[in-house]
Amino acid sequence: xxxxxxxxxxxxxxxxxxxxxxxxxxxxxxxxxxxxxxxxxxxxxxxxxxxxxxxxxxxxxxxxxxxxxxxxxxxxxxxxxxxxxxxxxxxxxxxxxxxxxxxxxxxxxxxxxxxxxxxxxxxxxxxxxxxxxxxxxxxxxxxxxxxxxxxxxxxxxxxxxxxxxxxxxxxxxxxxxxxxxxxxxxxxxxxxxxxxxxxxxxxxxxxxxxxxxxxxxxxxxxxxxxxxxxxxxxxxxxxxxxxxxxxxxxxxxxxxxxxxxxxxxxxxxxxxxxxxxxxxxxxxxxxxxxxxxxxxx
Length: 297
Description:
The protein is of the alpha/beta class. It has 3 domains: about 5-85, Orthogonal Bundle (Arc Repressor Mutant, subunit A), CATH 1.10.10; about 90-165 and about 270-290, Periplasmic binding protein-like II (D-Maltodextrin-Binding Protein, domain 2); about 165-265, Periplasmic binding protein-like II (D-Maltodextrin-Binding Protein, domain 2), CATH 3.40.190.10. Helix content is about 40%, strand content about 25%. It contains 10 helices and 12 strands. The protein has helices at about 5-15, 20-25, 30-45, 60-85, 105-115, 130-140, 200-210, 225-230, 245-250, 280-290; strands at about 50, 55, 90-100, 120-125, 145-150, 155-165, 165-170, 190-195, 220, 235-240, 255, 265-275. Strands 4-3-5-12-6 form a 5-stranded mixed sheet, sandwiched between helices. Strands 9-8-10-7-11 form a 5-stranded mixed sheet. The chain has a two-stranded antiparallel sheet with strand order 1-2. Helix 1 crosses helix 3 (about 30-45).
């Protein structure tokens, strides 16, 4: 088997049609068809089933694609490492970090990374969730570390879980809402949320569980950690917090944790990258550092 044939098969699997795969590979459709026919002839099995709606993999094709992705990635990684060795250039690594994840895992991972690659050109950007996904898609980031909601995950991204954290609701200490224990009674409060507007429906559904409660009318989304804390201390505001961040404000007497008749969903901290992204040696080691520094209960 030739690497080009494997690349063609993977492109078809990811894009669903021969035409789309041909465009991605800068080949003609007949060339793509010929490559697959030659591969099927070499292996003696049918890899694709063609129909008017496109193509789908046979079980043989699915098995080969799983292995082919690994082969292609390793070859590309080897070529990249050889190129770095030839140019003797300092490695460049660009990492996106979500606002909530900046204080968890990443600092330890960066310290370990610097010990091995002290001369690396390291770029770390703190971003909103939507910017993280966009940056991975367009290649601005080699990888990202972020608290992940279901709405953030797309087909082209791979997410490696690094642990999960609990969340709580909070109100200003001494606020009348502090005594409230019923979720339904909090609907008229001004809510403060720390993720994306798109993830609010899923969060509220998880919070309500089997109950059917309409979402609060007043929900402000704020992803600035400093501004979030200031807004959360205003009277009449119910805010959503990661417990690892809320604990400090509770200890200082600025906020009070609500004990309500509902369970907030846990958030997963994930290492994210494109499935087709080929890691350099530096990116691979940083990923290992992040996994080593994963969250613990």
